[in-house]
Write a structure and sequence with these properties.
Length: 371
C-alpha cells in the first residue's frame, strides 16, 4: 500500500513537470497498464480468460526467469523469489503440463499424441539460480535450461543493467545527461519506476546501453566487481552443468543487441559462445536464447545465422505458446517472461492460458514467430 501511495505521489510530481500539452499522453501511459491489469483481473475472476484464450493455448510453453533473488525489494524487483518460482511450477502442473527438457519439448511438438508440456528457462547465469532456484527444482524434480553468455562467466561483459540498478540503489537522485533527465529516486517506488523508464529509453540501442555504464559507473562503488558479485564463475557453472536436471544453452559472447551487428559479428557471437561453453563443460550446447529477444533485438537474419552456427532451436522473448507449426521455424521460438515481481495470479494465469498473447496482439495470430 505504501508502495502504491508513493508511486502515485511520484506520478503527480512528474506530471507537474510536464508541459500542459503532454499531460494527457503521460496520463494515458500511466493509466493504460493499470487498465490492462484491471481487465485481466476481471476476466480471471469471471473464469472467462481460459475459454477466451483457447485458440492461443498451445501444447507447449517456454517460460523465462532471470534472477531468483533472496530479497526482491533490495534488487528493485528485477527478479523473483524462490517462493514465486515454486508457485509457477505448481500452477504449470495444475494446468496439466509436464515440465521437460528442450530435447523432449521438440520431440513432443512433433508428436500430436504427447502430453502438454512446459520448459523452464533461466537467462544470464546468475549465481542465485544455484543457491535459490536449484533447491526448489530438486525438491519438485523439475528440469531447467540455463542460457549462459560467455562474458558473464569471464567477467568481460558490459552488464549495464547491473550498473543501472546499483546506481539507483545507492542514490536518491540520478542525472542522466544522455537521456536529458534527472530522476529523483529516494524510495523503492521511484527507484523501480526510474529503472523501468531508463530501460525503456535504452530500447534496443547498444550505444545508449553503453552510455549508461559510462555515466553511472562512477556513481557505483567498484562497478567492475558487480558481475562477479551476481554471476556464476567457471567453477560454479561447471558444477551446476553436471546436475542431472540442468541443460546448458548459449546466450552469445557479449550479450549485445544483435540487430546492430554485422552478419559476421553475429555468427562470431554464436560460435564463440558455443565453443567456449562446449570446451568448458565437455558437453554439446545445442539450444540458444537471443539476448533481449524482442523484435528490435533479433529476427529472421539472426535465426538463419543461429541455424548456421549449429543450434537445433533458438528462443526469442515474443509472447506466445509453442505449437507444432513452430517446428518450421525452430530458431524463432516464443518464450514468456514470468520471473518478475510483483505478479498477480491473474497475470500468471494469463500467461499460462495463452490469454497474454491474445491481448498483446489484439487477437492476432496465435502462432508467434516474428511479432
Ligand atoms: Zn540475457
Amino acid at each position: 500500500m505504501t508502495y502504491a501511495l508513493t508511486n502515485m505521489r511520484r506520478v503527480l510530481r512528474e506530471l507537474r513537470q510536464e508541459r500542459p500539452a503532454d499531460v494527457p499522453a503521460r496520463l494515458w501511459r500511466y493509466a493504460k497498464p493499470k487498465l490492462d491489469v484491471l481487465g485481466e483481473e476481471v476476466l480471471y475472476r469471471a473464469r472467462l480468460m481460459g475459454p477466451l484464450a483457447a485458440r492461443y493455448r498451445g501444447p507447449g510453453i517456454a517460460l523465462m526467469f532471470h534472477e531468483i533473488q533472496s530479497n526482491v525489494d533490495d534488487e528493485l524487483r528485477t527478479g523473483c523469489s524462490a517462493g514465486h518460482l515454486r508457485q509457477v511450477i505448481h500452477a504449470v502442473r495444475a494446468a496439466g503440463r509436464d515440465i521437460v527438457t528442450p530435447d523432449e519439448a521438440l520431440r513432443r511438438l512433433g508428436d500430436r499424441q504427447s502430453a502438454p508440456f512446459a520448459l523452464l528457462t533461466f537467462d544470464d547465469a546468475y549465481a542465485d539460480n544455484r543457491l535459490n532456484a536449484l533447491p526448489v527444482l530438486q525438491e519438485l524434480d523439475v528440469p531447467m535450461t540455463l542460457f549462459v553468455p560467455t562474458g558473464m562467466i569471464t567477467r568481460e561483459i558490459d552488464a549495464w543493467w547491473l550498473v543501472l540498478r546499483a546506481a539507483l540503489r545507492s542514490r536518491s537522485e540520478i542525472a542522466l545527461p544522455p537521456m536529458e533527465r534527472t530522476f529523483q529516486c529516494p524510495d523503492l517506488a521511484s527507484k523501480t519506476a526510474a529503472l523501468r523508464q531508463i530501460t525503456a529509453w535504452v530500447g534496443t540501442d547498444q550505444a545508449r546501453a553503453e552510455s549508461l555504464s559510462e555515466t553511472l559507473g562512477p556513481l557505483v562503488s567498484d562497478p567492475a566487481s558487480l558481475v562477479a558479485r551476481y554471476a556464476m564463475d567457471a567453477k560454479d557453472l561447471t558444477q551446476f552443468a553436471q546436475h542431472p536436471l540442468v541443460t546448458i544453452g548459449a546466450h552469445t559472447k557479449t550479450h549485445r543487441f544483435l540487430s546492430q551487428l554485422s552478419d559476421g559479428e553475429v555468427l562470431a557471437e554464436f560460435t564463440s559462445n558455443k565453443n567456449y561453453l562446449e570446451a568448458l563443460l565437455g558437453q554439446p550446447v545445442e539450444v540458444l536464447a537471443y539476448p533481449y529477444g524482442t523484435p528490435g533485438a533479433c529476427g529472421e537474419r539472426e535465426a538463419r545465422l543461429a541455424r548456421e552456427a549449429g543450434f537445433k532451436a533458438a528462443f526469442t522473448t515474443r509472447p506466445g505458446h509453442l505449437f507444432p507449426d513452430h517446428l518450421k521455424t525452430p530458431h524463432l521460438l516464443p518464450r514468456i517472461d514470468i520471473g518478475y515481481t510483483p505478479q498477480r495470479r491473474s497475470a500468471l494465469f494469463s500467461r499460462l492460458s495463452g490469454f497474454q498473447r491474445a491481448m498483446t496482439t489484439r487477437w492476432g495470430a496465435p502462432v508467434a514467430v516474428l511479432d
